[in-house]
Specification:
Elements (H helix, E strand, L loop, with lengths): L12 E4 L2 E7 L4 E7 L4 E5 L4 E8 L2 E5 L2 E5 L4 E4 L5 E5 L3 E8 L7
Antiparallel strand pairs: 1-2, 2-3, 3-10, 4-9, 5-8, 5-10, 6-7, 6-9
Length: about 110
């Protein structure tokens, strides 16, 4: 069944302190829309999912495979499966992530 969605109408969940997400799940992908509070961090982790991150607004310090970078509005990166990464919001941020396969914990 095809269903029209509007992101603002999706339930927002705080997945970890300061990380507020809204999620769209397809058969094989998850599309996450994050509002991240300044100073909030996600610790070093990895997962089986390939991930594409895109910054809509704000500044986000992101370390991938031990290499730190600052990502700002318009920046995008592809993170391969099982690659260690972590990040901290330097300002309030809006970020989109796409994961494949879908993230079961975000359903």
């Amino acid at each position: 069944m095809i269903k029209k969605l509007n992101i603002k109408n999706l339930e927002q969940r705080e997945i970890m302190p300061g990380f507020h997400g809204r999620f769209v799940n397809g058969e094989n992908i998850t599309w996450a829309f994050w509002e991240i509070e300044k100073g909030s961090s996600i610790p070093d982790h990895n997962h089986i999912h390939e991930q594409i991150m895109h910054v809509l607004s704000g500044d986000f310090s992101f370390t991938i495979n031990g290499i730190p970078s600052i990502f700002t509005k318009g920046d995008t990166i592809v993170i391969p499966s099982n690659t260690p990464h972590r990040g901290t919001a330097l300002t309030d941020c809006k970020i989109m992530d796409v994961f494949s396969p879908k993230r079961e914990e975000y359903i």
